[in-house]
Amino acid sequence: MKRSFEKIDILIAENINKSFKNPILDKILSKTNKGETFILVLIFYLLIFPVESPFLVITFTSTIAFFNDRFVLILKKFISRRRPSLKVLGKENNHPDLNHSFPSAHAANSMVTAVILYFSFGFPEYFFIFSLYAGLGRLLTLHHFLSDVIGGWMIGFFIGGAGVILHHFLFLV
User: Fold this and answer.
1) CA 1 to CA 132: how far, in whole Å?
2) Which among 10, 36, 89, 124 is least buried, having the fewest CB atoms inside 10 angstroms?
3) Which residue intervals of 20-104 are DSSP H helices?
């Protein structure tokens, strides 16, 4: 079963490499597909649509995202799956982080943030678009396989859900 998923991942990555990969798209995605961009959008949103406690929103969401990020990094080092850029493009492995593909931290962290913002603080559902963008960006730049992104989204959703429950018990009960 694992072999089947790996074959599908490689076929999708090869197709992305043939059909979508180009230097201009890579440059755009590398500049915009970052956590800092999400934070800027969040701050801009908080300035336009004031919420009751913006400090709590940023602090609580960032804290849960931080713990999610640490968990994902531990998983990545434990699993040590090579990135598509190595398996598909055949680039040299001269950087230790190139062995850490599963799960996608970008997908996981963006999903944690979207889940907490939506379910705990009542932000609009279009904040989930940022998580979709993060995952697709990682696929198109061949930093991750499809299963890496889906795994990241799943981890982010569950840890985000735990954050929503924690928020409920700390601030609403």
Assistant:
1) 26
2) 36
3) 23-32, 35-48, 54-79, 84-87
- Strand, helix or coil at 3? helix
What's the pTM? 0.86
For 89, which DSSP code?
Answer: T
Q: Cα–Cα distance between 117 and 128 in angstroms, integer?
A: 9
Structure tokens at 132: 């979709």
What are the distances in angstroms from CA 109 to CA 14, 134, 138, 162?
26, 9, 13, 14
Residue 154 in this model has a pLDDT that exceeds 70: yes
- For 51, counting Cβ atoms within 10 Å of its Cβ (0-12 exposed, 13-18 middle, 19+ buried), the class is middle
Distances 130 to 26, 48, 53, 93, 166 between C-alpha atoms, Å? 17, 18, 22, 30, 23
Task: Report residue 77 CA to chain centroid gap.
Answer: 17
Query: Hey, which of 49-53, 86-90, 92-96 has the most confident mean pLDDT?
Result: 49-53
Distance, in Å, from the CA atom of 136 to the CA atom of 29, rounded to the nearest integer, reads: 10
Model confidence band, residue 46 (pLDDT cutoffs 50, 70, 90) = confident
What token pair was written down for 150?
Answer: 């889906």
